[in-house]
Amino acid sequence: KTEGCRLMIRMGVPTGVTVAVLSLLDTVAYAAPPRADTRADTSASPPGPPPHGWPLPLNWSQVPDTLAHFPHNNATGALLVQPWVYEHRLALYRAVVSATNKDPIASAWWGGTWQGDVIWGLPLQFDWQQTSGRLLQQPAPTAPVLPGHVSATSWWACMNWMLSVMPFVGAVRSNVVFPNATTGMLLDILPPPASEGNASLFCSSPAECQLAHPVLVGKWVAFYEALYGGPPTTPVPPGDLPGAHEDTLLGLLWSAHTEAIHTGLDLFMDEAKLLPLAEMNFGLGWANLVEVIAAARWSPDFNSTSLQQSELLPPRTLRVGEHLPIKDFSPTANAALELIQVLWDLNKQTKGGFVVGWQRAMCTPPARVQGRALLNNLVAELQHPRQVVQRMLAIIKDDRQPCSNSTVTVGN
């Protein structure tokens, strides 16, 4: 605690705020029952997949895997994208994942195994949002809901629009999903129902999206261009760690991902306020956690994402007046929620200093290896959530990091 206090004072946090933040750590409940501490055992490995492997997203096999099977506007010939229906939005993901896995150059990044595709994190997150009820109308609907409807009144659905339609637009503009397209090919991205009141927030074509969000689209294009350039054939430079080339690719992926989060947070705060307070705090805390994950350039491949989601994410939305621990959540899900809240409170109390400090600490490949190891072991570590935060503070305060005094962005 003393080291954490010194760190926050160095970051310019007032003493009173520092004491308040450190008090948060003392109030973190241990949601998991006591068990042997494996933190010092570097051979301890996280649980493996179930006997038959992790499940694919709901209805994955029922949606088209190429744009040739998307519906068309009979009058104009334009392909129709309807992101306000679960299966249609899922098809955007499947078209991109299918294209990247079928391309021998792109898939060489992950050794040609379909589970290694780093785009899998996006559709798996969308699947969790659907199965946990986070894509439904807010406030909670009183009338029957059409099957598969994705409501634009849902903050989660709006944020995911930025992480489904915009990566897809980047793939279109990079010729990933239109490899043989002519420049005149039309694509209509349909708006949400007018009754939901925010249709003007969503662009309706790749060209319009490019105009509305040029930085975001540009970052997705940069990722796809690097992906389809294939992994470098030159050896890793002396002094670099194995996987240094992949680290660079993941930096581009997370730079695009966090840009989408920032854009969504600016646009959709009215939708966030429709959520129950506990769920809104979780959602904003989740967005904060993404900054931590992104800075370490964690690999969101199929198996890694499936493991973390199955163990750590809440299976339903949080309700009005609900407090931790929640009886029908697993011990690890309760502990993960507490960790997310503590990190979110810590970042607010330090006026963004915690995330900036973590990003600076993750400025080199060796540091990111350390950060990824911490994230990969969260399932085991969360029996002691307070100690996870303290270990992160210890990494931040490590003066041996060569760029600890510089401003570092995720994609650099």
Question: Can you describe this structure in just a few lines?
Answer:
It contains 18 helices and 2 strands. The chain has helices at 2-10, 15-26, 86-102, 104-107, 121-131, 155-162, 165-173, 206-212, 214-229, 244-267, 269-272, 277-295, 302-312, 331-349, 353-361, 365-376, 378-381, 385-396, and strands at residues 79-81, 187-189.
Please explain how this structure is put together.
With about 400 residues, the chain is mainly α. Helices cover about 50% and strands about 0% of the residues. It has a two-stranded parallel ribbon with strand order 1-2. Helix 3 (about 85-100) runs antiparallel to helix 5 and helix 8 (about 205-210) crosses helix 9 (about 215-230). It has helices spanning about 1-10, 15-25, 85-100, 105, 120-130, 155-160, 165-175, 205-210, 215-230, 245-265, 270, 275-295, 300-310, 330-350, 355-360, 365-375, 380, 385-395, and strands spanning about 80, 185-190.
Physical arrangement of strands within the biggest beta sheet: 1-2
Strand/helix succession:
HHEHHHHHEHHHHHHHHHHH
Separate helix tally = 18
* Arithmetic mean of pLDDT: 84
- Identify low-pLDDT runs: 11-21, 27-46, 404-412
- Helical fraction: 40-55%
Main β-sheet, in a few words? 2 strands, parallel
Residue fraction in strands: under 5%
Helix/sheet category: mainly alpha
Shape: globular
Distance between the termini: 31 Å
Which value, in Å, is the CA radius of gyration? 21 Å
Q: What is the β-strand count?
A: 2
Give a topology summary.
Layout: H1 2-10, H2 15-26, E1 79-81, H3 86-102, H4 104-107, H5 121-131, H6 155-162, H7 165-173, E2 187-189, H8 206-212, H9 214-229, H10 244-267, H11 269-272, H12 277-295, H13 302-312, H14 331-349, H15 353-361, H16 365-376, H17 378-381, H18 385-396
Parallel strand pairs: 1-2
